[in-house]
Amino acid sequence: MNFKISFKRIVCLLIAAAMVVTVIGCSQKTTNKKKKVIKKKVVIVQSNDDVQDNTNNLNNDNVNTNDKINTLKPREIPGIKTKTEKYKEVFTPEFESKNVDWAGPDGYTIVYDSDAVENRVLANKLATFFKDGENVILSVKADTDSTIVNDGKLILIGDTAFKTSKLKETEFAVTLLDNGNLFFEGGHNTMVEKAVDWFRTVERVEGKVATLTGTQDDFTSKVTVLGKDYVYVWGDEFDGDEFMDTSKWGQRMRNEYSDLKIVHNDPHFQYVENGRLRISVDRYFDPADGDIGWGAHGSCNSYGDMIFQNGYLEMKVRFDYGQGSFPALWLMTDSSPLERYVPNYEQYSGRYFNLETDIFEFFGKGTHAAANMHKWYDSSKAVQIMDEDGNPTKLYTVYGVNGVELTDYIKNGWSGWGQGRYSSFSWEWRDLANTFNFSEEESKTLYKDYHLYQMIYTPESVKFGIDNNWYCEWPLEVAFDYIDGIDPTNNNNGVGMNFWHYLFLDQYVYPPSRAEEKGADAVITIDSAPLDSYVDYVRLYQLPDQIAIITSAGVGME
Question: pTM score > 0.85 for this model?
Answer without folding.
Answer: no
